[in-house]
Amino acid sequence: MQNDSEQLDSVKKRNNKALSIVFDVLLWVVIGALLTFTVLRLFVFGKIRVSGESMTSPYYDDPVVSTYDPECTFHNDDIVRLNKTVKPKRGDVAVFYKYHVDSKFKAMFAHGDDAGEDGKYEKLIKRIVALAGDSLWLEAQGANEYKLVVQTVDGDVLYEDYYVKNDHVLDVEAFILSDNTIAGTGCLKNTDKEHPHIVQEGCFFAMGDNRGNSADSRGSLGDVPYDQIYGIVRS
User: Fold this and answer.
1) 164 and 108 in one domain?
2) Would you tell me which of 50, 137, 140, 165 could form a disulfide with 191, CB atoms 3.0–4.6 Å apart?
């Protein structure tokens, strides 16, 4: 009987040890999954709530504008998904810090209304219309109305119908700049092909699609450094 009891105890110990190993493995799998999710959430993917209407075309619900793609507009309180690793391109919609941040790691944990002291982690959402070295100028379209022209560093001349998504052109008419709006033409005023605005090295030029009501690179924001980018909006 003693031998049977010892054998039973030995079996129980082996089973307990096996269960302990399985539990440890599962625990580390869960910890690894959580760490992977956290790293991806902080450094690769993310989402943010849109604040304001600077990326809402004034004609987004106009049935007459048949070429307008509603997926290209962003309303106040919309949730947008971001990719934090892709290289920014002309036409991308970017979320970026309004000001230089001393610690992006700390800034990552500032969400919603928590934008840090004096709003130093405040984020904006705008469209990247030009990259470093690009030249920008205005072409007159009528009384106090202008079309933006972008000449790339490769010499290509682009108008704003180059923003194409799913074979639908964005509402280009909404992009006409006017001196009669709140935002106006700003630093682009009096520019032409011979006297363009040239985007500084290491920066991009950002504008809201709601051109008449967007505080952007035309004004005090100026050219935005690449290192202030938080993420590029994913479709």
Assistant:
1) yes
2) 137
